[in-house]
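Example noted here:
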Amino acid sequence: MNTAMTLDSQVRQLVSLVDAENPFDMAFSEVLPRQLEAINERFQDRVHKIKLLKNRAETGAITQVRRMADVVPLLFAHTAYKSYPEGWLVEQKWDRLGRWLDTVSTNRVAPMSLDGIQGLDDWLGRLGEQGHYVSCSSGTTGKCAMMNATQVDLDFAGHALLRGLVFGGLAPNHDRRMISLGQVASTPRNRATGRPMTEALSAPGVEPFYPQVPPITIGGITEMVTLRKKMSDGTAKPGEVARYEAEAAARAKAIESAVQQAADALIESRHMKLHITGMLGPMYQVAELVRSKGYSAKDFSPENSAFWSGGLKRAVLPPDYRKFIFETLNLTTERICQAYGMQEISTTAIRCKAGRYHMAPWVMLLLLDESGDHLIEPTASGELEGRAAFFDLSLDGRWGGVISGDKIRATWEPCACGNRSPSVGEDVQRYADLASGDKIACAGTIDAYVRGVT
């Protein structure tokens, strides 16, 4: 792992626990004082570097972090990373988007040559040449969120996931073929996160499988979202409608091809130990196709393993989808690593054998009310329900505190698996999917500030 990150003492000590044999067996009462000290160190270092953080601190009258409640006013709503005016993206105003990105970044996003930039993917690539590795959310429900990162962030995300696999019970023994189902957007974060896992699990001389289809890029997704909006409000030109329909048909064909290729690769490699990665929706589709070709668990190695994260992502699957996948690909709960995470932070929480996602000691879990304004104080026992927020001390290129769009059940008491770290139940819900919608009170003020300084 790259250790070039400039860290203060308590931050360094907590982040270095990524290499501990079991960093998840630390009681909340033991780790909280260290986390508060570390967050204060981060705050003092970053408050004059990140413009939005300085505004949040002044608005909340925070000069020191001494308790969990002091962290709440310093958190960014997850929507902060998509607070740029949408017109700038549609009209390709890259200079203005660069000034916006600067307000939510640790390191300055300096003006750069825009010659030859033809779209979002080109602009993101140019930023990467400057050391700004911007990963974006898919933007399938609206504008994409853009999150700046350094090489240190990319290295840590991949290393932390690999260490999480070990905690989840998957030994990196270089003894299997990696089967990726694809269908994940190609971003610096996604590429960097998967690389160490692939290198550690792949058998020597055995090529990992990736579907041979055009990559899903953020620029391509964003263009489709923009065209769809134009069509819905009646402003799309005939040529734009035709382009949308052609792109939609091509993408549907690529998805179908990726599923077919993955199913064929699984069948061809069925006598090898396999490690399968992907989201649950595509994994179920692939399992259905494998089953339709006459293969099931009896045809596959009894040592197959899998990793998935991201939940169902609005995929509608039958109630027994997990059982179906397991009985098709010869998987068991003991050989599955499931993670809960998000693009806004670098660390994924790994699901334990008791079915809970455990927080690493360098990540503070905060539970907020639905508005995101008020802390729900942790209790010594029992579960509490509310909006998830996190402070990830490992983050280098941007601020580590974020208010998510997730409704969770959290506990700070020891888990049935034996680990003592705070944990989250696996039934995570999105506020956006609930009747009340996702309404974070601070989002509007963050948006107004960010737009005001750009």
Summary: Confidence is low (pLDDT under 50) at residues 1-6. Residues 152-340 form one domain.
